[in-house]
Amino acid sequence: MRPIITGFLDHDGTLSFDEQIELVNKHKLSSICLRQYNQKPLIELKDGEIKKMIASLKEQKIKVAIIDTNNRSFDIYDDRKHDETLDEFKYMVKLSDKLKVTHLFFKLPKFNNVIEEYETIEKRLTPFIDVATRHNKKIILLPVNSYKANIYAYILKKMKTNILSVAFDPVAIMLNNEPTTTAYRMLKKKIGAFMTVDADHQGVPKLIGYGKTDIIPLFKKLLRDRYSGYLLIDNKFKQTVFKPEPIKQGFFKKLFSVEKKKIENQLNDLSKKIFPNEETKNVTYDDILENQIKVLKVIFK
């Protein structure tokens, strides 16, 4: 099986559900990831909103690939927070049943030493795994708290369950000062979702292959290992080069001017790469999204 190209497509929470669906259809995707509905967290939805969402997905013949539980990374020794998070997780699992989705994003709790505190970590995670198992769900662990790849590898190996996997984010790994190819080697058998993002060493987003994450060699490894999970296309360009221009006041005008110039240079560079034969064309976020999807479709054809 080929990997599935998908994403939240919510522009960092600013788009409505209908606008997300429009993007799915425009870019000819078969599935979407969800963390909210019309700027409202999924856990806060009323029955009518859930029914309307399900009806729309059915009408458009779009599947939900992953839902984000949006859980907060609680202190591993906080019983109350653990119980609250577990209750919320149970609700999200029931919602995933209604949406006919198997995979859920989840963040690990906060701890200091994975080896010394492993028994407590296992004790905290087991109830979530039990709930997921009863409902035939899979949990994909999101990068959080700057945990290194070896921490996730240690937990996944010790837990000995096929319920848990990890979301591989090459940018997050690089910014953790880890070689992404080494991290891949440790986690390759447990990757449930792969973030198709690239960036420079300062975290500035770049088009696939133009950053410093070694993402192209990683793609080659995914192909070699016959990866069939999810490829998430959400990137950081919306939060950087396409972010709303702030109101300039007094002393900060000069700072804003420098920032604006930097963004203009980034946009010019993106335009040249995406439209090399159209010097006067200005790139949009949707142009970037379309370009990155095309790149993935060529690589994983």
From TrEMBL:
Entry-linked InterPro entries: Xyl_isomerase-like_sf, Xyl_isomerase-like_TIM-brl
Domain Xylose isomerase-like TIM barrel: 41-233
Pfam families according to UniProt: AP_endonuc_2
Name of the molecule in the record: TIM barrel protein
